[in-house]
Specification:
TIM Barrel, alpha/beta, globular, single chain, 8-stranded parallel β-barrel, 349 residues
Length: 349
């Protein structure tokens, strides 16, 4: 039954396959489940201080081409094995992009890059690619943006981020309290970290909220709380916040409310002044802080792709350049290798 007061601005409402149906089409094999569990445990041990290696979330700003993402992953796996005694590498596999106003919202929402919003195809492409990457042995990281999509994909994720625009959101704090992976909350867009600290206090607690179950039914979700939340410093208001004094201030703020002193530094965004050329400087500075005894920095993030820079989505998609970001500008693979290898040589065993 419809009324003249209901769904006035809804143009259409299209049923989507359920999480259970997607997982039946694209199941995660037993050995792949073991890989995810092992990789999550490695991250938990880093967060708990049982593993002295920092982790590095590295990869494209966003995934728009599964073929180039797989090529990137094959290269990253070789590098990850090479530096595994010093660094734990996690591939950045971001399928959803928050938009300040409008723009391409990511592979799940718009896999054809043409505004058709074929979300069912996007979910299938995302899950298929992630299974292929897990089969390589890689841990995967993503941004948990849409509160519905984790039911479709969260079983594949080893580390999740809550973005600067959503860290203050009650919906995202509640969702994160039920995620199976460790989760990093980014500081607010103005660069302050109190909002993220508030989020960390919330995420560790149980919550009850409306969501969906594996069959796609609306349900009451009851969570246990996530014990592996931590803060991600990404700069803000046009200024960086990875320097020694800011990291110390953040550490003291965490300590004040009895939170673990775990900090991840995002080497892009305002920490790099949105210039990929500066990511190496930020990353190197974080490594130096680690070498100088600052164990509160447990990880770093790099935006990296096969090729340098970024590009706009052309009207003629055949003109899209291979291996180049269509969102934020990234460093290229050669620079990524050099930065990570240099860090591994500097870090003590």
């Amino acid at each position: 039954m419809t009324t003249n007061t209901d769904n006035i601005n809804i143009q259409s409402n299209e049923a989507l396959l359920s999480p259970a149906e997607l997982k039946a089409k694209l199941p995660l094999a037993i050995n792949a489940q073991s890989t995810v569990t092992k990789n999550r445990k490695s991250l938990q041990n880093i967060i708990n201080g049982k593993d002295s290696r920092p982790f590095v979330v590295v990869g494209p700003c966003s995934i728009h081409d599964p073929k180039s993402a797989l090529e990137y992953a094959q290269k990253l796996k070789i590098l990850a094995d090479e530096v595994s005694e010093k660094l734990f590498l996690v591939m950045r596999v971001y399928f959803e992009k928050p938009r300040t106003t409008t723009g391409w919202k990511g592979l799940i929402n718009d896999p054809h890059l043409n505004g058709s919003f074929d979300i069912e195809t996007g979910l299938q492409q995302a899950r298929k690619l992630m299974i292929e990457l897990i089969d390589l042995g890689l841990p995967l990281a993503t941004e948990a943006l849409d509160p519905i999509s984790p039911q479709y994909l969260a079983d594949l994720i080893s580390w999740s981020a809550i973005g600067a625009r959503t860290t203050e959101s009650q919906t995202h704090r509640e969702m994160a309290s039920g995620l199976s992976s460790p989760v990093g909350f980014k500081n607010a867009t103005d660069g302050s970290f109190q909002v993220a600290i508030d989020a960390l206090q919330a995420v560790s607690s149980p919550h009850n909220f409306l969501g969906i179950n594996h069959h796609g039914q609306v349900s009451v979700v009851r969570t246990k709380g996530n014990a592996y939340g931590h803060i991600v410093l990404r700069g803000g208001d046009g200024k960086p916040n990875y320097d020694v004094n800011t990291v110390k201030a953040c550490t003291l703020a965490l300590e004040k409310v009895n939170l673990e002193k775990n900090i991840v530094i995002d080497c892009s965004h305002e920490n790099s002044n949105k210039d990929p050329m500066n990511q190496e400087q930020v990353f190197t500075h974080c490594i130096e802080q680690r070498i100088n005894g600052n164990q509160s920095i447990i990880g770093m993030m790099l935006e990296s792709n096969l090729q340098w820079g970024n590009q706009k989505i052309p009207n003629d998609l055949s003109e899209l350049k291979y291996g180049i970001s269509i969102t934020d500008a990234c460093i290229d693979w050669e620079t990524t290798e050099q930065i990570i290898r240099d860090a591994a040589k500097k870090l003590p065993k």
